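Curious: why these numbers?
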Amino acid sequence: MKVELLEATEDPEELICKAARNDYYSDFVGEDDFETVMGSIDGDTIEDKQETLIGHLLAHGHYGPFEHPQATFAVKGISRSCMAQITRHRHVSFDVQSMRYVSFDDVDPDDVREGELVVTPPSASDPDWVGRNQKTGAVDEDVVAEREEVFRESVSRSVEEYQRLLDLGMPPEDARFVLPIGTKVNMVMSMNARMLMHVADMRAAADAQWEIRQLTEEVLDLAAEWCPITFEYYEENMRNRKNRLAP
């Protein structure tokens, strides 16, 4: 998996603060400079004032201003299982690599066994991996070796049969039905800062599946660089709380 920030609102936290100040500001935020707009907020520097205001907004559940800045991420190599989970978030915009128009007829089935084309879950090879609703994942080494072999043989066979169907003239949009749900896909997704926090509440949680947790953590790392005050506060005060942020 690889996640990159494609594009994002410049000065996102200035925009958040301007939007928030608009609600209680007697003049027009579109005409005054940022220092003037933030004049009544506590803090010695403009950065201190942003920290004060953003912390106040998040602490008091005033999330509307966080809907204005938006970020777009490119995601490489997640499974279609993970894609099905993340695309349930209807307030995120998605473009997903098509398996109708993109065929995988040049992939060597032997490479599939090494992780090409299909995501291999850690539980395929880790004898101590504990999944949801399991008390323990501990199994004998010979058992996990067999489990890994069954998994890799299955996906390799699926790719071989997919390519055979293409050779027999079946269109890619129909031949893809034999490919496993772990088949890798690329995706572009856009969301605002509030929605990103909601996704993190849901998908970085301990009970989320390992792959979507990894995806969300990588997005959060990028968000911390893009919108540092907001996501530092989120990490320190909002993660793993009982009441999750609504979209």
In short: The chain has a mean pLDDT of 91. Residues 130 and 137 are 4 Å apart (CA to CA).
